[in-house]
Amino acid sequence: MNSLPLQGKRILIADDHAVVRMGFRLLLEGGGATVVAEADCSEAAIALYAEHQPDALMMDVTMPGVSGLDALTRLLAHYPDARVLMLSAHEDLQIPRRALKSGATGYLSKRADPAEMLRALAQVARGQRYIDPALAPQLALAQLSGASDPSEALTDKEFAVFLQLARGRSVNEVAATQHLSPSTVGTHLYHIKQKLNASNAAELALIAVRCGLIEV
Which of 71, 120, 161, 204 has minimal CB crowding within 10 Å? Predict the structure, then answer.
């Protein structure tokens, strides 16, 4: 009897770091999977998903251009049954909440043990929900206690714009990656500042750091 957890599963990897993708490929192939393709950005992930129709997509939340969260929303609009395991190096609760709310099948920290990654992806490839066991108790506790961070006041689109602005991107750069007009991004920025009680980009960055959404 074959005990490989991903035997026969076709997987698409999306991560902007080539070395990371290589490590993932070796791990997944060792677990029995066939890696059908690798994407280095969100736009490529969507295109390659359409081309290969894999059993599961393993995608990093943070990538250049369109974020993994935005790519997830776009992908599910065209392929509502897509099975997606979102990965992130961040330990905050806001990212997994957004990912799962947006329709991700599962969420796993990049700090997870390799064996846990294989288990997570096998579960997602079967269409079963998966939440990183290190984060699940915190997510449940926060939901029960009503604990939140300031960015929870933002809509999904405002959150995507907020993350990019907090990382130092200009309004025009955000407009290009989000496929919005600069004036629309400006409107989002106005509402973001109002909701977060921030007056400039430096304060937005500080809020993002405090919430664990970006690293310094």
Answer: 204
